[in-house]
């Protein structure tokens, strides 16, 4: 099977940490990358403080194959992601003529003021990521992929950068309904099954529905045969517990 390719997300912005803005990007990126065969392993959120952005970028880019950042590439004084990424990678940064050319598709010469030109500041040696919505590009430098925080723009940038990514084997998923069985009734036995099937991630997820309390058991892995074997063991466990709890 193909090797595992890993990624992290760094969400940048005081507005996320304050709760003023609710993040809508993490779940989207996680599902998108999973479908490509890239495993999201970690997510961090940091404020608009250069030292904290630099520290997080350097920690995450060294730990994973790709680091995706969202937020902080707009025209205002607190949009410091591009400069912080350049600092983390030890690269110069300046207004990039390629980015300016893209932005001229939307802005006239007079409209490209100093604030808007901040969005054309790109670290030396970076590849641009097209932005068909507002034209100000993101960029990819080494294994760091810098995208906008606005969900529609981020999604367009993700589409643009996806063909450049190295991918691994896609994760297979099987979901089993545990019905109204309480997690406490199968937790110990499920843990034992997880130990017996180390190549399969097995998790239990409770929820409340209109019909009451329900549980689902989710199996994830790269080997479909291993998932099928583990799923049969989980089904047998659930059947046994359901039978034991059946009314007489």
Structure commentary:
- The protein has 248 residues and is α/β, with parallel strands linked by helices.
- Helix content is 39%, strand content 26%.
- It has helices spanning 14-18, 26-36, 50-63, 81-89, 97-103, 114-117, 151-161, 183-196, 224-244, and strands spanning 6-12, 39-46, 66-70, 93-95, 121-123, 127-129, 138-141, 144-147, 172-179, 201-209, 212-221.
- The chain has a 6-stranded mixed sheet, with helices on both faces. The protein has a 3-stranded antiparallel sheet with strand order 9-11-10. A two-stranded antiparallel sheet has the order 4-5.
- Strand 7 (138-141) and strand 8 form a beta hairpin.
- The mean pLDDT is 93.
Shape: elongated
Spatial order of the strands forming the largest sheet: 2-1-3-8-7-6
Q: Largest sheet, if any?
A: 6 strands, mixed
Number of helices: 9
Q: Strand pairing plus helix content: what structural class?
A: alpha/beta
Reading the helices and strands in chain order gives EHHEHEHEHHEEEEHEHEEH
Q: Pick out the low-confidence regions.
A: none
Q: What's the alpha carbon Rg, rounded to whole Å?
A: 23 Å
| Terminus-to-terminus distance | 49 Å
Strand fraction equals 25-35%
Number of strands: 11
List the helices and strands and how they pair.
Blueprint: E1 6-12, H1 14-18, H2 26-36, E2 39-46, H3 50-63, E3 66-70, H4 81-89, E4 93-95, H5 97-103, H6 114-117, E5 121-123, E6 127-129, E7 138-141, E8 144-147, H7 151-161, E9 172-179, H8 183-196, E10 201-209, E11 212-221, H9 224-244
Parallel strand pairs: 1-2, 1-3, 3-8
Antiparallel strand pairs: 4-5, 6-7, 7-8, 9-11, 10-11
Helix pairs in contact: 3-4, 8-9
């Amino acid at each position: 099977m193909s090797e595992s390719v890993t990624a992290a997300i760094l969400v940048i912005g005081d507005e996320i940490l304050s709760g003023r803005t609710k993040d809508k990007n993490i779940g989207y990126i996680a599902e998108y990358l999973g479908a490509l065969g890239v495993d999201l392993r970690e997510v961090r959120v940091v404020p608009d403080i250069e030292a904290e952005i630099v520290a997080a970028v350097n920690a995450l880019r060294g730990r994973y194959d790709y680091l995706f950042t969202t937020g902080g590439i707009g025209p205002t004084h607190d949009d410091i992601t591009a400069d912080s990424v350049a600092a983390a990678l030890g690269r110069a940064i300046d207004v990039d003529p390629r980015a300016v050319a893209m932005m001229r598709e939307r802005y006239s010469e007079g409209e490209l003021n100093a604030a808007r030109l901040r969005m054309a500041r790109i670290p030396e040696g970076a590849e641009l990521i097209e932005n068909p919505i507002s034209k100000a590009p993101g960029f990819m430098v080494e294994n760091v992929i810098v995208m906008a925080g606005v969900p529609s723009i981020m999604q367009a940038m993700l589409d643009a950068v996806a063909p450049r990514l190295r991918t691994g084997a896609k994760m297979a998923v099987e979901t089993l309904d545990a019905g109204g069985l309480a997690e406490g009734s199968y937790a110990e036995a499920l843990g034992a099954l997880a130990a017996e099937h180390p190549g399969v991630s097995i998790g239990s997820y409770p929820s409340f529905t209109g019909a009451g309390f329900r549980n689902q058991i989710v199996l994830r892995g790269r080997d479909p045969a291993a998932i099928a074997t583990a799923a049969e063991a989980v089904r047998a466990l659930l059947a046994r517990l359901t039978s034991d709890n059946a009314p007489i």
